[in-house]
Amino acid sequence: MFNDKEFNEKINSNGNNNSNNNSNSNNNINKNINKNYPIEGYCHDEECHDDFCSDEECHDDCRDDHCHEVGCSCEHGLLEDIDKDTQNSSKEPHIIIGTGIILITIGKLLEYFMVQPSFSFGFFHTNELISFIIFLVVIVAVGNGVIIDGIKSLFKGKVRMELLMTIATFGAFLLGDGFEGASLMVLYYLAEYIEGLALDRSKKSLTKLVNLNPDKAILKKDGKELEVAVEDLKIGDTVVVRSGDKIPIDGEIISGTTSVNQASITGESLAVDKNIGDEVYSSTINEDGYIEVEVRKTSKNTIFSKIIELIKESEEKKAKIDLFIDKFASYYTPLMVVLAILVATVPYLFFQEDLVTWIKTSLILLVISCPCALAISTPVSMVSAITAGTKNGIIIKGGEYIEELNKIKAILFDKTGTLTEGKLEISSIDIIGDISKEELILIACSIENMSKHPISHAFKNYAQENKIKLQDVLNFQSISGKGLIGIINNEKYLIGKKDIFSDLNLDEESKILINENFKSSNDTILKNKYGKTQMYIGTESKILGRIYLKDKLRVDAKDTIESLKIRDIETIMLSGDNEEVAEEVSNILGLDEYHGNLLPEDKLEKIESLALKHGDIAMVGDGVNDTPSLARANVGIAMGIGGADVAIETADIVLMDDKLSKIDQLISIAKKTMFVLKENVFIVIAVKATLVILAVLGHINLLTAIIIGDVGLTLLVVLNSFRIGR
What we know:
Elements lengths: L3 H21 L6 E2 L7 E2 L14 H10 L26 H22 L5 E3 L2 E3 L2 H27 L5 H14 L3 H33 L5 E6 L2 E6 L8 E4 L9 E5 L2 E4 L1 H4 L5 E3 L4 E2 L4 E4 L2 E5 L7 H12 L5 H32 L3 H14 L3 H20 L2 E3 L2 H7 L4 E5 H5 L5 E7 L5 H12 L7 H10 L8 E6 L3 E6 L2 E6 L11 H7 L8 H4 L5 E7 L4 E8 L6 H10 L3 E5 L4 H11 L3 E3 L4 H15 L2 E5 L5 H6 L2 E5 L5 H6 L2 E3 L5 H36 L5 H20 L5
Helix pairs in contact: 1-8, 3-4, 3-6, 4-5, 4-6, 5-6, 5-10, 6-11, 6-24, 9-10, 9-11, 10-23, 10-24, 11-23, 11-24, 12-23, 14-15, 18-23, 23-24
């Protein structure tokens, strides 16, 4: 769990992420590392971390350093540009690889079928000078970027794969095997190219998704229709959307009816009927019917824009296993270099073994030491998981939450808006004081109209449906977890839980009611109504009445709870509602545990105690009052469309279509991802360990080492990781 400092940092960092990321996302920094590198990526060098190489000078430095600490394909910044068209259609990598293979083939054929002049220099000697020159051309043409970066890393005191490949290549040449040296460089280039393709492929679905939003809109102004940029739309503008068009902005339908395909937001392709007064979202498709939409959010603040920013943020939060692999690779490569040096020298110095034979063996070890397959296994797996989630309307903000979900022992649920639809309706009203039903509901609706709490929607809808003309409210106050206060016609009224009246000097009748001993002629109304929320309304001296609100359980709530139980995950409800309501909901859904009458601070205390009991826990909520709980849990899951903005920002995972059934799907993705990732790590380590043993025993050569230990392993890891998205 978090201590207070970590908790505050989580709240603050999540709350500020949107503004920070908006500025970062304006820079399209997806550049080719080097004209001879086929991989697109971003700098991973310490000198460039602060601004992701936003300036030209830093870009040059980073290109020289080739991004990744261990010299493999760059995964940092992979998702930064998913909303931009950065597809690289260059055929240069294919030409380079093809040319290299052709030249190597020609050089090898010449060795067999042509008598060539010899050449000697010092201890170096070759009988095939023409082939030697051809192989040297291959190295310069294919690997000049690798060689330059390898030399630069040496001057900086860093051991990177470029340096190791440079040493192995020229080592093979000096030992008289130009064919192996040239083949080594071409295969290394091919491995890097495959890694780049894998990273590109892993984010391809995300790129397609986020490019769904149109950049033009039809603005209706002064009776005319004008085509304008979506970013120029202002709140209050009217946008025309015809059948088959994409809705360009978030807003409310003010004219027409239609069906809307919301797959880009929710992952569900089934169209949803929309009428006047209903909300529509940018990137969704108007399937039939002409509608006019009043703009409610600017283009930077739409639900779709939030999805893009959340996906971009996800890369910054690495899983612990990813951090472990990064750290492991930073020690593994230098260790293998030391081992290679020992293998080259010890047999010769102490056992009078053949020096050339053991130098070849040491070069093979340098090739085997390439940690690229290991390093790429995590980013490809995590991006595949994030892609799989996004396609199904689940926004996962980072790999660390996938890892945490795999360990979850208990899931805590808020009630209103989470287990229930959160669309409360006024079901009955009981009059207690000297006031009419019409006057009581007028006061209640007027005060609740000032609130943003989900409960207030029931009163707002009631007022709208019954055409109630609301009164002015002065000195409005919202008391967290208790209720509302407001002055109407010089009289102070209170509405909320009975706790809001606890410190007031009430008359005896009201005190009895608060103590739940009050009886009335309408006994069926005043009994505790399981599954219904009770709202008290009164003045500072008297309770005037009680209003009952009913809510509807989500249709998939019970099935979701049952599926979680099959996984041996405890299900617990934390509710601010009374114990009777909480108990009834718990019994209907079959929850393992429930707790009612909880204020936001009470929920935090309860989460702490439940964390001590169960270990790793997740919290599912939707409202502003759930924000501290979402931040405190190991994994916070927010309901997307119906949830409060601050809850969505604070949560680690967002369910965009508000379907609880997505939680089971989410856990399936997490478990599959971690299984595949651990499988990849085991395969890589096992194969490389086997190759090291075989190399020391003299059973493999340089080509076998790179074909199996680099190219082959990279392909295997990549293909295995793609299983996650299926």
